[in-house]
Amino acid sequence: QVQLVESGGGSVQAGDSLRLSCAASGRTFRTFSVAWFRQAPGKERVFVARTDWSGHQKYYADSVKDRFTISKNDAGNTIYLLMNNLKPEDTAIYYCAADDRTTVYSTAAAATEGRYTNWGQGTQVSVSS
Questions:
Q1: Model confidence over 44-82: pLDDT tens digits?
Q2: Which of 10, 20, 110, 128 could serve as 50's disulfide partner, Cβ 3.0–4.6 Å?
């Protein structure tokens, strides 16, 4: 079992950048795929990005492609989400989630919440115009 803790959220202006972190304890991410999801007020939680354990296979939602980058550190115990050119519609609680069981070959597959067995508590990101 792996425990996940997100950090790095905050309140920023449109056009600013933020880097979220997801720290793992209990186990490292070396054999996990890890994703970021987000939930805006009054809306369902949606997929943002996913990286496999090697960092070579990544998937992004269309809404964040070319603005957000998912990565992991060399130690394999922290996942990052670098968010550039933030927009008010990026306002949400951001969650990281780990998948230790499945391999995906499409963004649609990566976005399936049922794949993820471990979730963090979330970190709030607020973007004002």
A1: 999 999 999 888 899 999 999 999 999 998 888 899 999
A2: 110
